[in-house]
């Protein structure tokens, strides 16, 4: 590994794949992993395909009966040990994330704590999967409804939160008694592999958790084709999610799909300005704006518009982009050239069509894009219609509450939304009428393992986190016991 961001625990720098308890090293063709800040190659991991994925699925199938038969408390204890090891190695996991993802150090350490929280939560939730006794329809019968693990599960995770998006799936799956095969993003596999290494140390039995890196199409195809895989959980783009959903239909898999967004951030006239600005900063610039729930459109009511733009502009103008390891960096580089190109295209399209730069702007060397605030944005600009996934905040003005709600809902997506108001009636109405799976009121930070995470419309299906998250990995079995009056 590189000496930049050197680990205290060198055992966490893992470049092999885990299948059935065995680590498989790269041989021949391999995937290169680079540092988004220095652009240097920092590791090579196996470029696996359908064959290796099939072996991982077989290993998970073999391990499933034994894991499902364990008591819920036993499974929970292993998950809690896994949580403890993650927290003990927090700084090393954060270093790996900064190296392969580029995010700022504060974002990386926060993600480790957030991600570990899913294991802690579902370690406790394992013992709360309760069944039901249903009043019998006739004497001599007992009607029961039990919850059982669905079986082998597959997980495909993105690069923007390489630990948290994995623990959010692994925690409930293993707590429920399922086994899993996971494919992390090609850009950020080392964090996931280190997580798997800690899982072994925590006592996760061989085959219960497997991880393969490589060709997305081949691995995803093997996962969706295999009848043994009874559940697929995917976080990523809507286009890919739709294809996976179609492929899963042939074998009637359960699916959880957390897809794209176009999150509005509404500031009403009666909002507290300081709260609105601080919430806007968090909702837009966390992880360099590369989050599916990042505020993509700032809708600001006319009465507070100028004041908000001025105050937010001062905050954005003071932000710095640079090396994630430097304390002075509020955000790091973007993940790849395509990501940088898209942000620059959206920014330029807005400027060409009448928007103006209020603060920040421009791009740096490599994959650096400086925090930017644009005003005078209109609904038909690219930056309003498409998910930018970068550190550019775009503000448009509206007049009435009705108009603000209409603009916010004017998208096919429905993942996250935000608004700021001090009026209880406005809060009640807007919270009810926003067509989104999640709504942040007077805050830009809404994610927690204790709450359901997911969207509506083209932003996906299912929920992750909370007790709803574990239900995604269970099915209900009805038992009708007759002849009990003899």
SSE blueprint and pairings:
Elements: E1 17-19, E2 22-24, E3 30-34, E4 41-46, H1 50-69, H2 72-88, H3 90-101, H4 105-125, E5 132-134, E6 142-149, E7 152-156, H5 164-176, E8 179-183, H6 189-202, E9 209-211, H7 216-225, E10 229-235, H8 238-249, E11 254-258, E12 263-267, H9 273-285, E13 295-301, H10 302-318, H11 337-352, E14 356-360, E15 372-375, H12 382-385, E16 392-398, H13 401-409, E17 413-414, E18 416-420, H14 424-433, E19 438-441, E20 456-457, E21 460-461, H15 466-471, E22 474-481
Parallel strand pairs: 7-8, 7-10, 8-9, 10-11, 12-13, 12-18, 13-16, 15-16, 18-19
Antiparallel strand pairs: 1-2, 3-4, 5-6, 6-22, 11-21, 14-15, 17-20
């Amino acid at each position: 590994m590189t000496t930049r961001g050197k680990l205290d625990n060198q055992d966490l720098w893992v470049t092999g794949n885990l299948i059935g308890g065995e680590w498989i090293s790269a041989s021949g063709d391999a995937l290169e992993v680079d540092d988004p800040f220095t652009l240097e190659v920092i590791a090579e991991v196996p470029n696996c395909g359908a064959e290796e994925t099939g072996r991982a699925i077989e290993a998970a199938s073999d391990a499933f009966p034994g894991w499902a038969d364990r008591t819920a408390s036993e499974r929970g204890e292993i998950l809690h040990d896994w949580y403890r090891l993650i927290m003990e190695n927090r700084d090393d996991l954060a270093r790996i994330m900064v190296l392969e993802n580029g995010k700022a150090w504060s974002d990386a350490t926060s993600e480790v704590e957030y991600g570990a929280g899913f294991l802690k939560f579902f370690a406790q939730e394992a013992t709360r999967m309760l069944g039901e006794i249903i009043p019998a329809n006739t004497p001599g019968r007992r009607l029961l409804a039990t919850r059982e693990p669905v079986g082998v599960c597959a997980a495909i995770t993105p690069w923007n939160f390489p630990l948290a998006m994995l623990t959010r799936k692994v925690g409930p799956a293993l707590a429920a008694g399922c086994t899993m095969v996971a494919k992390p993003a090609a850009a950020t596999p080392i964090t996931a592999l280190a997580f798997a290494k800690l899982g072994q140390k925590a006592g996760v039995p061989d085959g219960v958790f497997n991880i393969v890196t490589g060709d997305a199409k081949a691995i995803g195809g093997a996962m969706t084709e295999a009848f043994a895989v009874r559940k697929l959980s995917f976080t990523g783009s809507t286009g890919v999610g739709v294809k996976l959903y179609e492929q899963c239909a042939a074998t009637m898999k359960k699916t959880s799909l957390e897809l794209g967004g176009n999150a509005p951030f509404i500031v009403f006239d009666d909002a507290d300005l300081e709260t609105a600005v601080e919430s806007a900063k968090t909702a837009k610039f966390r992880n360099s704006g590369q989050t599916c729930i990042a505020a993509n459109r700032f809708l600001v009511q006319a009465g507070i518009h100028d004041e908000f733009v001025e105050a937010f502009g001062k905050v954005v103008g003071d932000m710095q982009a640079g090396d994630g390891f430097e304390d002075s960096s509020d955000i790091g580089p973007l993940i790849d050239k395509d990501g940088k190109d898209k942000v620059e295209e959206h920014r330029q399209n807005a400027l060409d069509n009448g928007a103006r730069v209020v603060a920040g702007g421009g791009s740096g060397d490599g994959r650096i894009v400086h925090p930017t605030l644009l005003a005078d944005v209109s609904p038909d600009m690219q930056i309003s219609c498409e998910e930018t996934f970068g550190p550019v905040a775009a503000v448009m003005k509206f007049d009435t509450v009705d108009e603000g709600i209409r603009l916010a809902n004017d998208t096919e997506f429905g993942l996250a939304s935000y608004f700021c108001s001090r009026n209880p009636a406005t809060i009640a109405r807007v919270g009810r009428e926003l067509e989104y799976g999640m709504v942040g009121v007077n805050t830009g930070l809404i994610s927690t393992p204790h709450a359901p995470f997911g969207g509506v419309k083209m932003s996906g299906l299912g929920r992750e986190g909370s007790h709803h998250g574990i239900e995604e990995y269970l099915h209900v079995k009805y038992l009708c016991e007759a002849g009990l009056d003899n």
